């Protein structure tokens, strides 16, 4: 992966974390145990500190950055969807930030919350635990049910397993010129996004 030390601060990646080779880590970045960092994610610790705590995932094209003397943190088992931007904020334990959402400086998303896809969370925003956050600007819409929290936790477990799968078997290769006969499919845990499948 492109990994850069800046002014003597070198990124830290726990050996049990998976960071895709195209993700970029700069300076004061700490990736904890069992994390997953997807393709083209940018973790820029060139001003403030960037932290992914144990079991967190940061998916494709996400950006984490912050102003000087700030920490941008995804707490334990946090789940950050494709294309999200986190800037100088804190995402609570077991929370989910949806695809293409933006969470700004000094915002704090409480534990077990879900921030809807494309939401814009203004600087300084605070929300209580287990809330659904939606809109632009984002507001708390309601409390999440235990079933919704359990669905989120199952999705996060899928990404933790994906990290282990990638560590064990992902290798760079050349593409085939044609689809082979009887092409197999990848394994299926049975988990489906909300509203699809069982």
TrEMBL record:
Q: Which Gene3D superfamilies match?
A: Hexapeptide repeat proteins
On the tree of life, the source organism's domain of life is Bacteria
Q: Which residues form the signal peptide?
A: none
State the name under which the record lists this protein: Phenylacetic acid degradation protein
């Amino acid at each position: 992966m492109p990994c850069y030390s800046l002014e003597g601060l070198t990124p830290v990646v726990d050996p049990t974390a998976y960071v895709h080779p195209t993700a970029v880590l700069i300076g004061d970045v700490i990736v904890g145990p069992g994390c997953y960092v997807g393709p083209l994610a940018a973790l820029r610790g060139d001003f403030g500190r960037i932290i992914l705590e144990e079991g967190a995932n940061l998916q494709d094209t996400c950006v984490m950055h912050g102003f000087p003397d700030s920490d941008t943190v995804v707490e334990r088992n946090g789940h950050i969807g494709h294309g999200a931007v986190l800037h100088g904020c804190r995402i609570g334990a077991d929370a989910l930030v949806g695809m293409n959402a933006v969470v700004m400086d000094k915002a704090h998303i409480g534990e077990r919350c879900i921030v809807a896809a494309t939401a814009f969370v203004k600087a300084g925003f605070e929300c209580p635990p287990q809330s659904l956050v939606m809109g632009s600007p984002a507001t708390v819409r309601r409390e999440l049910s235990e079933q919704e929290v359990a669905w989120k936790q199952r999705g996060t477990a899928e990404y933790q397993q994906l990290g282990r799968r990638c560590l064990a078997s992902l290798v760079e290769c050349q593409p085939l010129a044609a689809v082979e006969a009887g092409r197999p499919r990848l394994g299926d845990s049975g988990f489906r996004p909300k509203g699809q499948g069982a």
